[in-house]
Amino acid sequence: NAGVTQTPKFQVLKTGQSMTLQCAQDMNHNSMYWYRQDPGMGLRLIYYSASEGTTDKGEVPNGYNVSRLNKREFSLRLESAAPSQTSVYFCASSEVQGIAGGYTFGSGTRLTVV
Amino acid sequence: GEDVEQSLFLSVREGDSSVINCTYTDSSSTYLYWYKQEPGAGLQLLTYIFSNMDMKQDQRLTVLLNKKDKHLSLRIADTQTGDSAIYFCAVRSSGSARQLTFGSGTQLTVLP
Asked: Is the pLDDT of residue A98 over 70?
């Protein structure tokens, strides 16, 4: 049982390049999330999808887009990468009827924009 | 919105107890969580407490909740070097369905 799988694990982009971070979960969870983690700032929510077919902005959505491709997959796209988007990105999923709605996290994507 | 705060660093000696503290602002918080992040890894759920509880114990972990002061703590008994990690407090509010708000994380260093 893989849980939440993120690809790639590491990526270096040049300013202005685009890329898509992939996330898939095999727990049949309804809700999925994208967070970024920066030193001293904890985790900040970028976008989330409460259920298949819906997406909503979180705290820091600017510069990002998302697609909830199906119940399993939730991708995050950077259309024109900027150095300020250098961060570690985490995907997570949850089910309200699960462990009191707690999240299961992927292992992260470490992105550097130069 | 919800604001969750933690101190950034804590150092303890191996075998001592560690206490990691967290404060939050939303009194309607329903579930409160502690996550552990080891280097290069994602966050792993350690334990959680429902807002109608004052304390929860799970082996070496004790969670205390003071709703009046909006204060949550995680005590790790007999701290080991393997407990060195970042610990995140997270809170779910009644109005936000499934969304969690995370603190900035406390880096716990266990000294031999």
From this structure: no
